Each structure stands twice: as C-alpha cells, then as structure tokens.
Amino acid sequence: MTLNQVKSLYQQQLAPIYPENEIHSILQIVCEDLLNWSRSDFIIKDREKLTHLQEEILQKSLKELRTSKPIQYITGKAHFYGHEFTVNEHTLIPRQETEELVDMIIKDHKAASYLNIIDIGTGTGCIGLSLKALKPDCIVTLMDVSEEALATAQSNANHLKTPVKTILQDVLTLDELPEKYEIIVSNPPYVRNMEKEEIHSNVLEHEPHLALFVEDHDPLIFYSKILKLAQKALKPEGTLYLEINQYLPEEMRKLAQGLGFDSEIFQDLNGNYRMMKCVRN
Questions:
Q1: CATH 3.40.50.720 fits 80-280, yes or no
Q2: pLDDT tens digits, residue range 54-71?
Q3: Which of 51, 121, 113, 66 has the alpha carbon at shortest distance from 90?
Q4: 106 vs 134: CA distance, rounded Å
Q5: Looking at the whole model, is its pTM more than 0.85?
Q6: Under 8 Å CB-to-CB from 208, ≥6 apart: which residues?
Q7: CB contact burial 180-189 (16+ within 10 A = b; e otherwise)
Q8: Does the pLDDT value for residue 201 go beyond 80?
Q9: Every domain of the chain and the residues it spans
Q10: Residue 182 scores a pLDDT above 80
C-alpha cells in the first residue's frame, strides 16, 4: 500500500466524521508524530510503498479515529504556543483559545522578568509551562486535583526543561493559596451539563469530564473560589487571568465586582467571550 492509497482510505472512512481538509491534516499529523516524517516527506513519499510497520501504524490510527478519538490522544502529543506537550486521557487537549490567554499574559508582562505565578487546574501544564519557557526567571507553581494530570504536567516540565513547583490539591477545599503571586491564572471546569449537546462527540466521549463540566445550578463554583483565594493571594500589583464560559460573561463580571475586583472581558479570535482579567479595586 502507498501513502496515496492510505489517503483515499482515510478520506473514505472518516468522511462521516470530519471535513475533507481536516482529514488531510489529521493524516499528516499521524505521519509526522507516529512515523517521524517531516512535512516534506508527507508530500514526496506520496507514491512510495509503505513498510509493513508503517502501514500497521496508519491502519491502527484509522481504526481509533473512526471512534471519534481525538488525534492528540492517538499520537499522545499536542502542540501549544510553540511547544509539544504530552497529553492523555487524564488531561484536556490544549486549545487555541487558551493560547490567546497565554499571549495576553505575556504581552501584559513583557517588561517583567521575575514573577511568581500559579496555574490552577493545570492539566498538561500548558499555561504555566509556556509562561515559564518564555520567562525562565519566573517562579511557576502548577496545581491540579488529578494525580495523573499533575504527573503529566511534571513530565512536560521535564521535557521542556522548565523547573516548576507542583501541588496536588482540590482548589475547592482550600482556604488560602500557599504564597503571594503577581499572576494567578486558571482555566477551570466551566461547561454546564446543559451544554453537553453542543459538545462534539470526540470531546464528550474521550476528554476527562472532571476537567470540563460543572453542575447547572452552580456553574461559577470554581470562579467564586478562585476569586476568593485571589483576594488574599494576589500581590497589590497582581492580576488574575481566567478562561471563562462564553455564555456567562455578565455573570462573571458581577461575581468579580461583588468580590472586590475590577474586571475586563475579552473575545477570542472566534468572537466568543473567553478571557477575563481581574485586579483588586
């Protein structure tokens, strides 16, 4: 079998699940991450006969993709803010919207070298580790309730050579954070159960619900706790950065105001209200 034949097979079997251009991109990722091909290899090896092992890898990946399993969980890798992160069933897949949050923090603090930062609900560590990689003099702490997720974040820190502190902790049980910070950042669970019907099956069936969903009757539970912790833990010049539910910007604004914060809410590149910045008033 040649790569060209595999392309046709992927297009045929994945057409009910993915758009045509996305199928092409998915196969390219499989070849790059699992066959260790370069982007040019993917083009020039189009008609070359595949080895038995290569064909087996591509067929196995296709079988998993047909179950709507995200490509990142098949390759075990995700790309975020110029870095490669290990991902698994215990961590959310890093997303472009979260890259925008990191970009905002970097731009806001481009002149600062030393900062004490905590990333609450870190998952893969993509936020905190991206900040540490760009600002190596900063002190970064990664916190998560999942032992498996925190181990993945530590593995990513080792791979990126970005030394960090880690805390295994359910933020909802905390009375205070361990230190004072210039930056507190969090992308906590915020999708209401009532919004599940909007979620693509590849997310709903494969990504950890612990990191995604909150109860409909208390959708801001994590934000309320983090804002209360930030009241004590933010340094006077400090800033709290949050990724938020696009449907609840006004509710978030009122919550922050009631807890003594001035806030700004920003749209992402898709026009959704996705990022929030809070300072103590």
A1: no
A2: 999 999 999 999 999 999
A3: 121
A4: 8
A5: yes
A6: 89, 90, 91, 92, 146, 149
A7: ebbbbbbbbb
A8: no
A9: 3-66, 80-280
A10: yes
